[in-house]
Each structure stands twice: as C-alpha cells, then as structure tokens.
C-alpha cells in the first residue's frame, strides 16, 4: 500500500520527462559523482507530479458526474451471485448508457463546441494523478471505517487478525450507500473503465496536436481498447458473476486500484504513443489486429459459455452437444445448502481458465501496437500475466474449499489450468 503509488509515479515521470524510457529517470543517480541522501532525496522529489487546483477540480468533478450518472441513468436490474451470508443483491446495470453519455458530452463539448481542449486529460495528467491518489487513499480509509461503524451487510464482513490485511483486501463484501449505490461496481466501471477510452481519446488528440496526424498504431490501440471496454459494459450483467464482484472484498486493492491503477496503468500505451509515434507496416498492423480479435473471440466465448450454462441450469448446448456439467452442493455461513454447477465441456473442458488465455492474447495485442523499441508499453501484458496466474491460484483455493469433492472431480476431468499440455 505504501509503494504502489511510487510505481505509478515513476511510470508517469518516465513518460513525462523521458519519452517513456524506463531507465533514463535513473540517470541522475547513476551518473552522480557522489551518491548521498541529499542527491537521492532531490531526485525523488523531482520525480513527483505537481498538484494543481485544476487537477483536483477535474478529478472530483469527474467523480461526481459519474456518481450522478450511476444514480440517475436508467438501466436494467442485474443480480449478483449469492453472498456467503446468503444475500442476492440487485444492481442497476446502466454502464453502457453512462459510457455513451460521457463520451458524447466530453467530445461534443471539446471537439464539437470548442469549450475546452480535448487534450485536457493529457494536459493535466500529472495533477490528475495526485488527485486520484488522494481519493484512492481516502476511499480505502473510508471503507475501512465504514466496515467497522456502519456496514451495509454486517454478516458478509471478513475480518483477519491483521489491520494491514483488512485495509488492503477490505472487510466489507458489498459496501453500499443506500440500497443500490454499490462501491465495487461503481468504482470499477465508472471512474475506472469509462475513463479508459476517454483518456485514450484525449491522448490521441494530443498526438494529433503534436505531429499533425493520428498514427495507425494509435487508431488500432483505440479500437482494441474500445472493444474491451465496450464488451465490459455490454456484458455488465455478466461482470456481476466474476471474482471481483462475487468474491473480493472492498479495500485498497479495489479502492486505490480502480481510482489510480486502472486509469493510469491500463492506458500506458497511449501515453507512450504520444511521445513515440509509431507508424505500423500493413502486415504488422493486420497481425496485431488479428491477434486482438482472436483473443477477444476466446475471451468472450469462454465467458459466455459459463454464463449460458449457469443461466439455463445446464440445459443448453455447448459446441453443439448437451453441456457436460458437474452438479454441486455447497454450504453458506448460515448453514444452508445451495446448489451450483461446474461446466466441464466446451472451453471449460479445454482448461480451467481458458478465458485468461484469451485475455492474455488481447493484452499482448494492446502492447504490440507500440512496436518493440521500449519495454514500458509491455508493462500491461507482464502485469496481466502475473495478476492472472495469481488469480488462478487464489481461485483454485477458493473453489477447492467451496466445492470440495466436486472440485476434485472437475480437476480430474480438466487437468490444465490455463493452456492444455503447458500449464
Ligand atoms: N483486464 C483485467 O485487468 C482483468 C481481466 N479479467 C478478465 O475478467 C474475466 C472474469 O475473470 P474472473 O472473475 O477472474 O474469473 P471467471 O469469470 O473465470 O470466474 C471464476 C469463477 O467461476 C466459477 N467457475 C470456476 N470454474 C467453473 C466452471 N467450470 N463452470 C462454471 N463456473 C466455474 C467459480 O465461481 P463460483 O462457482 O463460486 O461462481 C470461479 O470462482 C476473465 O475473462 C478475465 O480474463 C480478470 C482479471 C483482470
Ligand atoms: C496493484 C493493484 C492495487 C491492483 C488493482 C487491480 C484492479 C484495479 C484490477 C484487478 C482485477 C481487474 C479487473 C478484473 C476483470 C475485469 C473484466 C474485464 O472485462 C474488464 C476489466 C476488469 C473489470 C478489470 C479491471 C481492473 C481490476 C479490477
């Protein structure tokens, strides 16, 4: 919790001052005639972005605007999975509407009406980083206090013996304001994922202002990122049944992660392309496009198969044949027995997390839009690999605990975790 922001700030500084070269920021230290505490401290302070009033106004204005859209825009009601304490919570899934309204207003007001430059996000990036960090830490602390003093669902809280652990992974499962303002869905989707394409767009405009055109690499990046983001909102109801919503509690990991990590680190390729415009050859362009769409096909098909089999209680066709399912029973903390099912055919018969393989292909395609000159744009795929491998282990332990003998049966039927015959 103490060091995460430094990594983000280091990446920001590398891009802002050294054209996204990850080694160059260290030169003042490597070349210092004498390395002492004063040199290190001056270097350290020199790497920090400067807070500005405009940065705070933009960030908190943005947050309030998204909160208003989340609260007031219409949308269908979706339901999460049953929580360990036995609640099935409703969610208003209006993310697609919020995405459309936000983009029309932002680009309409900037590019259409000229009320502010569309590069405003790029132009205030350092100051926004400060404001987002302030909010990320505030939200972590607030969620911790809320969990102790006024929890939304007391029976679904999880306490460990460590305050640090509780701060990091969270105590409350589904913290809410009122009945419907859900912290997890809001922070993930709105300041986090709606921002993703908006930030990209602003950086594309900055590239145009800088070199007079938008490179094909930047267009391709916009397309691939938009595909991923729009998929998320189109399938927002599906997201209610993923690990983040069904199993993770709300602490620093999601509070700071959604406020800072997601908008700042997931968009690194567009920051890179502003400083290092890349014109891709046609064969390379087509290869990266194909990789991105191939990955997306796998990612979405795997996720849809699970959704479909659970929606129809296993009475559906997977790859043209009746779904092969393991019917399971598990206990919730109130002592009640519940039923669920595990799909063991289709992509879920190929490997236990084949959706992650699709996601890794998409991630690689995002990074490859930047060519091979620097390592910084590849941060995303490296991070995703580490995150998803960790998630496979975490999920394995959770499912083994939840499903017991049924999970063992599934493991026997589907021995590979990520990719057949490899892992
Ligand atoms: N861009 C990013 O930063 C990230 C993207 N993602 C993507 O988000 C998507 C969701 O990922 P995630 O939530 O991690 O994982 P999944 O959507 O794969 O959900 C895992 C859960 O599904 C259930 N499950 C496991 N095996 C089966 C089975 N055989 N049949 C039916 N249900 C099963 C279990 O929950 P239960 O049975 O309890 O319901 C398990 O905990 C993925 O496509 C992933 O690639 C993920 C992480 C980061
Ligand atoms: C270092 C640190 C504190 C990391 C925080 C990580 C979170 C911001 C991410 C962890 C899991 C991520 C996501 C999971 C699944 C998703 C579905 C996909 O369709 C869109 C992206 C996402 C919502 C993604 C968003 C970031 C995380 C919550």
From TrEMBL:
This is 7-dehydrocholesterol reductase. The keyword Lipid metabolism applies. Keywords: Cholesterol biosynthesis, Cholesterol metabolism, Lipid biosynthesis, Lipid metabolism, Membrane, NADP, Oxidoreductase, Steroid biosynthesis, Steroid metabolism, Sterol biosynthesis, Sterol metabolism, Transmembrane, Transmembrane helix. Its EC number is 1.3.1.21. It is found in: Membrane. Pfam families: ERG4_ERG24 (PF01222). Pathway: Steroid biosynthesis; cholesterol biosynthesis. GO terms for cellular component: endoplasmic reticulum membrane. One of its GO terms (biological process) is cholesterol biosynthetic process. The chain crosses the membrane at residues 55-73, 85-113, 125-145, 211-230, 280-299, 362-388. It catalyses: cholesterol + NADP(+) = 7-dehydrocholesterol + NADPH + H(+); 7-dehydrodesmosterol + NADPH + H(+) = desmosterol + NADP(+). It is an enzyme of class 1 (oxidoreductase). Gene3D superfamilies: 1.20.120.1630. Coiled coil: none annotated. It comes from the Eukaryota. GO terms for molecular function: 7-dehydrocholesterol reductase activity. It is a multi-pass membrane protein.
